[in-house]
TrEMBL record:
TM region positions: none
Family as reported in the entry's similarity comment: Belongs to the SAPAP family.
Pfam families associated with the record: GKAP
Organism, as annotated: Globodera pallida (Potato cyst nematode worm)
A single BP term in Gene Ontology: signaling
Gene Ontology molecular function: molecular adaptor activity
CC terms in the record's Gene Ontology section: glutamatergic synapse; postsynaptic specialization
Stated name of the protein: DHC_N2 domain-containing protein
Length: 183
């Protein structure tokens, strides 16, 4: 599929090079192969790091940092996976099994971010900024909710690990005995 943009979408720092171009004319483009070179290069990794949450030392501010870092990384991974799906067969060329893995991983990650992480952020906000008359979210509550997130995150981590194995094999699915993640 082609990506379609209009010149009007480029709102900052327009160049004089666009003066003779019809600004209402759609621009259709495919990312250059060089743009996706990092997808098969070790410079980029789909790995999701283990996050250590100490029951004694992790306070609300530390949780905020962990959640923000994790969210940003998962969103980057989802964007990369979505880009790969959109250029499949034109540039990257991987099979249906890899595409299915990418789609499943994106779905699971979106579910984590949109449901569980949203719930966690709300509770974290109640912990950091208690409102008189409302139930206070205690640090123990945050640790309990984080344990649930961590279980779901482990599944997502395994999915991204399998994507990483495929990427390192030029988008070939590793043999079943080498793969640590099953759909």
């Amino acid at each position: 599929q082609q990506s379609v943009l209009s010149l009007e979408s480029f709102t900052s720092e327009r160049s004089d090079a666009f003066e003779d171009v019809d600004k209402n004319e759609p621009i259709t483009w495919y990312p250059a192969a060089e743009f996706l070179e990092l997808e098969s290069h070790k410079a980029y990794s789909f790995a999701v790091p283990e996050l250590y949450v100490d029951a004694v030392e992790t306070d609300g501010l530390k949780f905020t940092q962990i959640v923000n870092t994790l969210t940003a990384q998962l969103e980057r991974h989802m964007a990369k996976a979505t880009l790969l799906i959109s250029v499949n067969e034109k540039i990257v060329q991987f099979g249906d099994e890899v595409e299915e893995l990418l789609r499943v991983t994106i779905g699971r990650t979106q579910l984590l971010l949109n449901k569980r992480m949203k719930q966690f952020r709300e509770q974290l906000s109640r912990h950091l900024n208690p409102i008189p008359g409302q139930k206070i979210t205690k640090l123990n509550d945050l640790h309990g909710l984080w344990a649930l997130i961590d279980m779901q995150l482990e599944d997502i981590r395994l999915c991204f690990d399998k994507i990483e194995q495929c990427r390192l094999r030029s988008w070939a699915v590793p043999p079943a005995d080498e793969s640590s993640a099953n759909l």
